[in-house]
């Protein structure tokens, strides 16, 4: 057991942030969750919720008091703009006595991550997860309403990761020795096609689910109709149509860091089965 520590989690209401909070609590640590709107945040009992905005770092000093570890995201504000405030956040963290920082990689170079990597006096770890299993929730409405999933590139392979495992790796890196200066690629334990994922969800909910393969043109039309901006549409075409090797290669990071195997998509689907039911 590691000594109880107090960790500040930014992006605490997000898909990964909530898992970092949960894992730290499960490991017996104290958690302070930073959010721009505490009134709308719902966290487990025992979490200290504080108001703050990474785009306005000078207001973060009180939130950093007594903190030993800091989990950071690289985007801030309602528009999820890449943060330019990394140097000031690092300065405040060092002044507060923060020992360790984890950064959730934003998919490419970002000013905040660059600042953390270049900073002195704090042990940093970069978390680089591949596709989240939680992305499958985008299919929930279609499955519940019509019993089908409509996707392009259905044979593409993904080493998708349970978001809880991202939180677990973060929690260890924030509270234990031996993770300074590491870049952790975080994946699940297996490669899955879209068909594999659909079949797994079908088994979890106990009903048949049809997989309808879309052409690229049909997919673009569907994404635009859903209101996705053009840069996101372009990203999806590249990510799904030409998945980089890192996204389709299983890494052993979860087991090496946490001491237990990465969770499977079968486990994830069972946990979220109700989301896919009418």
TrEMBL record:
Superkingdom as given in the UniProt entry: Bacteria
NAD(P)-binding domain boundaries: 11-107
InterPro entries xref list: Ergot_Alk_Oxidoreductase (IPR051604), NAD(P)-bd_dom (IPR016040), NAD(P)-bd_dom_sf (IPR036291)
Pfam families xref list: NAD_binding_10
UniProt-recorded name of the protein: NAD(P)H-binding protein
Originating organism: Streptomyces coeruleorubidus
Taxonomy of the source species: Bacteria, Bacillati, Actinomycetota, Actinomycetes, Kitasatosporales
């Amino acid at each position: 057991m590691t000594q109880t520590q107090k960790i500040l989690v930014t992006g605490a209401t997000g898909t990964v942030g909530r898992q970092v909070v949960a894992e730290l609590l499960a490991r017996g640590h104290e958690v302070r969750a930073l959010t721009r709107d505490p009134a709308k945040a719902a966290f487990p009992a025992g979490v200290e919720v504080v108001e703050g905005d990474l785009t306005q770092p000078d207001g973060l000093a009180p939130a950093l008091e007594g903190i030993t570890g800091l989990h950071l995201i690289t985007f801030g504000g309602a528009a999820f703009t890449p943060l330019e405030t990394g140097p000031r956040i690092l300065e405040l963290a060092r002044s507060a006595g923060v020992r360790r920082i984890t950064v959730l990689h934003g998919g490419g170079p970002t000013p905040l991550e660059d600042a953390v990597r270049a900073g002195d006096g704090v042990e940093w770890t970069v978390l680089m997860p591949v596709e989240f299993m939680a992305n499958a929730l985008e299919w929930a409405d279609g499955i519940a309403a019509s019993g089908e999933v409509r996707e392009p590139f259905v044979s593409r392979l993904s080493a998708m990761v349970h978001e809880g495992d991202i939180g677990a790796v973060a929690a260890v890196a924030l509270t234990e020795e031996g993770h300074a200066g590491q870049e952790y690629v975080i994946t699940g334990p297996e490669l899955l096609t879209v068909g594999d994922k659909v079949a797994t969800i079908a088994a979890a909910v106990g009903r048949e689910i049809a997989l309808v393969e879309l052409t690229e043109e049909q997919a673009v039309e569907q994404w635009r109709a859903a209101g996705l901006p053009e840069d996101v549409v372009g990203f999806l075409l590249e990510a799904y149509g030409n998945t980089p090797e890192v996204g389709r290669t299983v890494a052993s990071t979860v087991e090496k860091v946490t001491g237990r195997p990465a969770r499977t998509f079968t486990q994830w689907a069972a946990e979220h089965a109700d989301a896919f039911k009418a």
